[in-house]
From TrEMBL:
One of its GO terms (molecular function) is DNA binding. Residues 8-53 form the SpoVT-AbrB domain. Gene3D superfamilies: 2.10.260.10. It holds the Pfam family MazE_antitoxin. Coiled coil: none annotated. It comes from the Bacteria. This is Looped-hinge helix DNA binding domain-containing protein, AbrB family.
């Protein structure tokens, strides 16, 4: 989807207002975090999702790769079934 160009004005205390069309398209709501940076002389504003530090490991590259590997194993039927917890625990030690 293409969003039309918008001209906005810098208001008092250097505030800007994001046009509704852009907020709705990107699902930006009050309280959301936006990353703002300069790239090649342009201002880039990007919505961010904040992750609690206790869950940051889940979003790491290593975890992402592990999840892809697990999905590939399941898709290719490279799985084992355990009937008891003891059997499972013995299986992960191998």
């Amino acid at each position: 989807m293409s969003i039309a160009s918008h001209k906005i004005f810098v208001q008092k205390r250097n505030l800007i207002n994001l046009p509704r069309e852009i907020r709705e398209y990107l699902n930006i709501n009050e309280g959301d975090v936006l990353d703002i940076r300069i790239d090649d002389g342009k201002i880039i504003i990007e919505p961010m999702k904040v992750v609690p530090s206790s869950q940051a490991y889940f979003w790491s590259e290593a975890t992402k790769n592990d999840m892809i590997e697990a999905k590939n194993d399941v898709d290719s039927a490279n799985v084992r079934e355990f009937k008891t917890i003891s059997e499972f625990l013995d299986g992960i030690e191998q």
